[in-house]
Write a structure and sequence with these properties.
The protein is mostly helical. The protein has 13 helices and no strands. It has one domain. The longest helix is centred in the N-terminal third of the chain and has 27 residues.
Length: 320
Amino acid sequence: MTRLSAPPPFPRHIAVLILLCMGCAFAGNHVAARVAFDDGAGVLLAILMRSGGTLLVLAGLVVWQRQSLRLPPGAWRWQLLLGLLITAQSLCLYSAVARVPVALALLVANVFPILLALLTWALGGPRPTARTATLMGLILLGLVFVLDVPGRLAANSSVGPEWLLGVALAFCAASVFAGALWITDHKLSPVRGSVRSLLTIFIVFSSVNLAGLTGALPGGLNLPATDTGWWALATLVVLYGTGFIVLFISVPRLDMPRNAPVMNIEPLATLLMGWIVLDQMLSAGQVIGGAIVVTGIVLLTYRKAAPVRAETPEGSTRSV
């Protein structure tokens, strides 16, 4: 059988522009979700609409490309676990967005590279280098300022339960996403990205449907109270679906080992959109902390260009 050659990569300025636009699309998806939640929409409803729309498009692409859904022996249990982890990540992240400023939730959730490095080491992988450990410490230092720990200690004020729960949920989202990335890289690497993406989204959609039918998350399927909420839900479906599908189609030509750090524009774009749309503004110390976190993550994830596969559980480079 003749092996198909990889498509030529885009010029770097085109690849960077695509990644910047997709990072902003994912940021807008989370801001739109917060608008919908503030209007009474349930978290399960938002995930159901988002995953359902993406599932339809992905299914059409897989059918059009005539790809088989057959998985290698022993891969189904890992695929199922992957889908459940991505479902948990979606629930945790949207639940965090509903409770704390969107930029804060995204910054906490974006520490997953640290957790992935530690998980890989714990499961027999290479030990983090001195450079990696230093950057991890830098990210954690930035996170201290993002969470405004110095200000809260100085003010001696109590932290509300919603704030604590929101931060905990964002960290949980980072943790399960790190586990999903590990499974993708170590257990499902032989599976074609489009097939893995379709099956993952299908499991997310099915799991959310089951949770809604059983009432596992009370109020999870609540409808928006006004047209504003419905428009916000439609916006998040379009933004997430567009970002995901464009990345899914373009990944082979984006030179991800070299350009992936560009996607870390997402927390910064979320900060700007949260200020414009939601009037959510972090303090100067939190903004500085956010810049430290993003800088550390960019340096931590940066790799010199090399012929290395760079796909996430859904064939893209970002969280769901």
